[in-house]
Amino acid sequence: MSTVKRREFMDETYTGRAETHTIDTPEQVGLEFSVAGVGSRFVASLLDLLIVFAFFFAEILAMVAIGAAAATTGNGGASRTAGIWFAAVVGFIDFVVVWGYFALFEAYWHGQTPGKRAMKIRVIKDSGRQITLFEALARNLVRVVDYLPGCYLIGLITMLCNKRSQRLGDLVAGTIVVHERTDEASLLYQTSTTLVAPVGFAGEGIGRETVLPWGQAVTAMFPADAVAKLSGQDLVILETFFARMLDLPMQTRATIAYQMVKQMTAKMGVAVPEGNPERALESMAYQMRGSGRRV
């Protein structure tokens, strides 16, 4: 379930009205995403188009050089055959670049193209999860319609007419473009050999530093009969948290993890363990999987 509320914000380059997309999680914690406006999305698209144009310019120079070299050889029949194959390969590459640049980057680069990464924005589902390849293809195939009659006029009008600045492609794929949170560090940070949880993050009774050797197997922290009281739906909730934890701001991530630990341990009838709650959640999921539990 998601709600949308308005707020004013000052962008580094543009000043205007933006939307905050709020997602109500199963843990009863609201996740807020600042929706990217027309300004930042326009600059990101411009940067991406410059990259595409630079590729085509380099391609033209390469074709001229290859054509000049082929003309000097004077091997007529072989040159024509090679030219046909060369044109076919170039046409295929151009097709992939034109139709696949945005979709492939967004699907496999965490919802970002180089332009979006430079502007610190990315595409997500309106539910908060990362978009799939199918959704990336859907939103970018409709880009042709958004571009009509030129300069993304339809897309611009559509973005201005809805609260989440969605163009037609976003509406079809159920996606939104949001600003990244860059002012908050990750709850866990990696050194060369360890994964360390910082001291003093939010949570009752939590604050002890936990150091795990990199690559060490998760240890069982709870009795098997207690873990058996958890259901398959609990495992779904755990794995949903792990799938999106790196995208959450530190404070929200710590709060959700601790609330989940309290709910799960209450269901198991055991005390809340000390230390990083994420380690406890990992142990629960590990033990449930080890017992043959399936989602």
Topology:
Layout: E1 2-10, E2 15-24, E3 30-34, H1 38-73, H2 76-108, H3 114-119, E4 121-125, H4 133-141, H5 143-147, H6 153-160, H7 168-173, E5 175-179, E6 189-190, E7 194-197, E8 210-213, H8 224-227, H9 232-244, H10 250-268, H11 277-290
Antiparallel strand pairs: 1-2, 2-3, 4-5, 6-7, 7-8
Describe the protein's architecture and organization:
By secondary structure, this protein is of the alpha+beta class. The protein has 2 domains: 1-182, no CATH class; 189-290, no CATH class. It contains 11 helices and 8 strands. It has helices at 38-73, 76-108, 114-119, 133-141, 143-147, 153-160, 168-173, 224-227, 232-244, 250-268, 277-290; strands at residues 2-10, 15-24, 30-34, 121-125, 175-179, 189-190, 194-197, 210-213. The chain has a 3-stranded antiparallel β-sheet, with no helix packed on it. A hairpin with a 4-residue loop joins strand 1 (2-10) and strand 2 (15-24). Helix 1 runs antiparallel to helix 2 (76-108) and helix 2 crosses helix 4 (133-141). The model is unreliable at 1-17 and 182-217 (pLDDT under 50).
Give a summary of the structure in a few sentences:
The protein has 295 residues and is α+β, with helices and mostly antiparallel strands. The protein has helices at residues 38-73, 76-108, 114-119, 133-141, 143-147, 153-160, 168-173, 224-227, 232-244, 250-268, 277-290; strands spanning 2-10, 15-24, 30-34, 121-125, 175-179, 189-190, 194-197, 210-213.
Protein traits:
295 residues; alpha+beta; 3-stranded antiparallel beta sheet; 52% helix
